[in-house]
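Study this fold:
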Amino acid sequence: MDEDIFQAYEDEIHALEEEIRLLTEKYEDIRQESTFFSDEEILKSIKSIQTETQGETKGHQSPSDLIAELESLERDLSFLMEFTGFHFTSHSKKTVEKTQNRMVQKHRLSGKCHSLPFQLEFQLLEMQNNEKVSAVVSDLSIVMESREDSNVSKFVSRIEEHGDLLTFFRSLSTYAEWYEHRRRTFLHFK
């Protein structure tokens, strides 16, 4: 009994340590992003945000409308999480390079699909030509627990080579759903 209590405390400590690490990374990313912009650009952004929010509160939407819209968005998000099985637990983004028509961002994403945890790290290169924006994924790194299936590790390696996030999410959704069915079936027979 005491061992279970200690384990629960240790799990909570590890979760808090992870949260501290993520918040520290997020703080460093924000601090680093702010060094990419000059003081003039920061002041312009602040003024534009202030005028936008003043315009919204003066006549466009009331606080009750905003609350209703937020609740609607939360319901939609909840539906999508239940429908797809994806539950994202953390996301961080760090701007590596930014020019007039090109931006490189490093993303770190973690979550679960049904009961399978995963972590992704990748760079996203966005380029703007005239009015067209194109995005390219590079340096994709996927971490998944593939306990009993070597095909999963082969699949992950192939996805990392091609940098194909859409195929990864589609395939993970299907695999995780059937993985969950198999797990429940085997528990039934134990």
Q: What stands out?
A: The chain has five helices and four strands. Residues 1-53 form one domain. The longest helix spans residues 2-35. The radius of gyration is 21 Å.
